[in-house]
Every structure is written in C-alpha cells, then in structure tokens.
Specification:
Elements: E1 6-11, H1 18-26, E2 36-42, H2 48-56, E3 60-64, H3 67-73, E4 79-83, H4 87-96, E5 101-105, H5 117-133, E6 138-141, H6 144-152, E7 158-160, H7 177-185, E8 191-195, H8 204-213, E9 218-222, H9 228-234, E10 239-241, H10 248-254, E11 257-260, H11 269-276, E12 281-284, H12 287-290, E13 300-302, H13 306-317, H14 320-337, H15 340-352
Parallel strand pairs: 1-2, 1-4, 2-3, 4-5, 5-6, 6-7, 8-9, 8-11, 9-10, 11-12, 12-13
C-alpha cells in the first residue's frame, strides 16, 4: 500500500484554546481522506493530557523545545502547516522551513473597535503576522470574508475554508431531557448563555448593560480571561460567571437563547455549536457572524448596543414559537453547510492542492 503524503501541523501553543480544539477535532479525519497528519507541540506540561488525546485518535504527536528540534522533526514531511499565536513563530519558522509551507490562521483579523482602535489593530496585524506570512506558499483561514480581507492586505493565495461541528455531539434536547437538564443545572426562567473568553473584543460590557435592561432574565457567562475581575464587580445580580466548563453541549441544550455581542470573530465555533443545538442566537452585525447567522431566519444580527440587543432578547423571550423556528432553521443550516466531516474534507482538498 503506498504511503500517504505526510502533513506536519506545527503549533506554538502552551495552553489549550479554540484553535487547538479545532486541531483535535479535525486532524483525525484527514487519514481517511488520503493524508497522514502529525502535530508538533511544545513541551509544555499543560499540554500533556491534550497530546494524549491525539495519540488516542491515531494522530502522531511530536514534542519540541527548540526551533532546531522542530525543524529536524518536520524534515520528512511533504507539507508543513504553521498555526501560531506568537508572531515571532511565523517570522522564525517561515524563514527556515522548506516548502511547501502554509499558514493556518484562526485569527480574528479585524476588530470592530471605535475611536481609531480598529485602524491601530490593523496596522499591528500587518506589521507582525501579515508581513511574516508573505514567506508562506499560502494562507488557509476559516471563513470566506477573512480570505477576502487578507487578499485586500496583499496576502498571497489566501484560501477561505469553513469551520464545522459534530451535529451528533451538539444537538437539541428532547422534550424529556430538557427539564432534567435544567433541574440539574439549577436553571429557572428565561436563561441566556454567552460562552466566550473574558476579553475586550468579546464585548461583555454590552451584555452587562443588556442584562440591566432585562432584569427578569438570567445571563450565564462561560469562560475565563483578563477582564474577569472587573466584569464580576460591575455585573448586575442577574449575571452569573461559570468559568471554564467541560459540559458545553449540555449548556447549549438547556439554555433558551445565546447572546453574542462580539466585536471580532473569524468563524465562531461557539456560534456553530449553538446553532447545531437549535439554540436561537442574537449576535453582532459583523462580517464573520453575517456569514453564519441570517437575520430573522437562523437568528438575529443587530448592532451590538444594549438597546438593540435587549430588544432582540425580549422578542425571543416572549415568543416560544419564534425560538423554535429560528433554532430549527439554525440546526438545518449547520447540517447542510458546517458539519465537521464537510469541513475536514475541504481542508484535505486545500492541503492536497499544495502537494
């Protein structure tokens, strides 16, 4: 049997974030699609259990401490794919790795901040990552709008893939399951979920103001981050902070709606997970979200101000039939366009075009 082309994925992560979860969900599918993936991870103790999960799924894991060690590890590969958080990783590796070599980017790329902050972020993004990416043979990203945005910045050969989720894992609750879940979680009344890192671009300030305008609704914030302390001090009584959770499928199934007033996304896995769970979404009218959520059909896209967000949440709270309609349409959209299997196939096809 001929040997499959070897694709070395390189990560500089020292902790698990959304892009690392994406690798865990996606790479095991590539072997059945004609590729032999390996993942090169830093020797961080925080990643030991994460690395073991790849091994369980038959994906080869190689750990490195230095750039030289990593470069030697990836020598036999037919293709190298760098996914990094630190711009220096791109600057160093893309200058030294032999081709073909690609960038895989989940970066949010454009932050819809006010008062010139968006322009400042764009400049920093260009001077750090975009400049380094010019040494790659191509850039893969996870949405069509992001590929077009990179093309406008002069990036060579950007390709827009798409994210996908497992609709069997993320699914709606049955009529019998729902009350059991809500009793288990201690949820009563209209409950709104927001899973996101507690950082500026996720715009939790708008959620806190929305919660003040809708004091009879309960808001559950899932995630950790640098703003956790100040957000907890400023939050009204109907906002709860649940930290990091491992039971997200159950939380999606038990909630009544998801509020996502984000100011920056590429293609949000949280959005897709909620949609697959038939959870109606109120989210910001920014390009990445408009690519997933169609206003009035699979959710609501509004201006991320408390007045607009609160009005949309009230509409969902007062109309159970609308919630059902939007949730069912959202799940159908995921099943047709954003399954994990479909996303893995598109990734495999993109990788093969460089072999």
């Amino acid at each position: 049997m001929p040997q499959l082309p070897q694709v070395a994925f390189i990560s500089d992560a020292t902790r698990i974030a959304g892009s690392e979860v994406w690798l865990l969900e996606t790479l095991p599918h590539l072997q059945s699609l004609g590729l032999e993936p390996s993942l090169h991870l830093h020797y961080s103790p925080d990643l030991d259990e994460f690395a073991a999960r790849f091994t369980e799924r038959q994906v080869a894991i190689k750990r490195y401490q230095t750039w030289e060690e990593l470069l030697e590890q990836t020598t036999p590969a037919n293709l190298r794919v760098v996914q990094a958080g630190n711009p220096q990783t791109y600057a160093v590796l893309l200058a030294r790795l032999p081709g073909p070599k690609l960038v895989l980017s989940h970066d949010q790329m454009r932050f819809f901040y006010p008062l010139g902050l968006e322009a400042l972020y764009r400049l920093v993004f260009i001077l750090t990552k975009v400049r380094a990416w010019q040494k790659a043979d191509g850039v893969l990203t996870v949405s069509s709008w992001a590929a077009e945005f990179l093309r406008s910045l002069g990036v060579r050969q950007p390709s827009g893939l798409f994210n996908g989720v497992d609709p069997q894992r993320f699914r709606p609750a049955s009529a019998e399951e729902l009350p059991q879940l809500r009793r288990k979680l201690g949820w009563a009344g209209f409950t709104v979920l927001y899973p996101a890192r507690l950082s500026p671009e996720k715009n939790h300030w708008a959620l806190l103001r929305t919660a003040r305008l809708t004091p009879n609704y309960r808001y559950i914030l899932v995630g950790e981050g640098e703003l956790g302390g100040i957000l907890k001090r400023l939050a009204p009584p109907n906002v709860e902070f649940w930290g990091r959770r491992s039971d997200m499928p159950e939380l999606y199934r038990a909630a009544d709606a998801m509020l996502q007033p984000t100011l920056a996304e590429n293609q949000s896995l949280a959005t897709l997970e909620a949609m697959a769970s038939s959870l109606p979404i109120v989210t910001s009218r920014i390009p990445a979200q408009l690519e997933l959520v169609h206003h009035g059909q699979t959710g609501f896209t509004v201006e991320p101000s408390a007045r607009h967000l609160a009005a949309a949440v009230r509409q969902l709270a007062q109309d159970s039939r609308l919630r059902l309609q939007l949730g069912q349409a959202a799940r159908h959209h995921v099943e047709q366009n954003h399954t994990l299997a479909g996303a893995s196939l598109r990734l495999a096809q993109a990788l093969k075009s460089y072999l």
